[in-house]
Amino acid sequence: MHNVIVNGNDFEKMNLILKQIKNLRDAMPDGNIEIVFTRSAVKALLKNYENIDKINDLIKSGIKFFACENSLKELKIDKSELAENIGTVRAGVMEIVEKQELGYSYLQL
């Protein structure tokens, strides 16, 4: 089984990022895929994001989504504004490094 850690960091490219994540899931139906959104991309994990249904569908397929707490703090977003089933990590960059040390493949979108 493949283990993949994906980083998305640009909210302006979110439609493309979500399409690529779906393509990854379709290509690896049994893969362990974790997504860490950093910088402006964390805005896509908010309850009121217009395409949150796409993210919820990806979560239902077994993909885990995380928001970087440093990015949330920088953008003055409270964790309570995140959609259901969205986790957080203290520092997105640290999470990526730790997953790579565990043997995960890294993909930047």
From TrEMBL:
Which positions carry the signal peptide feature in this UniProt record? none
Pfam families, sorted: DsrE (PF02635)
Indicate the segments annotated as coiled coil, or none if absent: none
Q: Which InterPro entries match?
A: DsrEFH-like (IPR027396), Sulphur_relay_DsrE/F-like (IPR003787)
Cross-referenced Gene3D superfamilies: DsrEFH-like (3.40.1260.10)
Q: Please give the superkingdom of this protein's source.
A: Archaea
The protein's name in its UniProt record: DsrE/DsrF-like family protein
- Give the organism, scientific name: Picrophilus torridus (strain ATCC 700027 / DSM 9790 / JCM 10055 / NBRC 100828 / KAW 2/3)
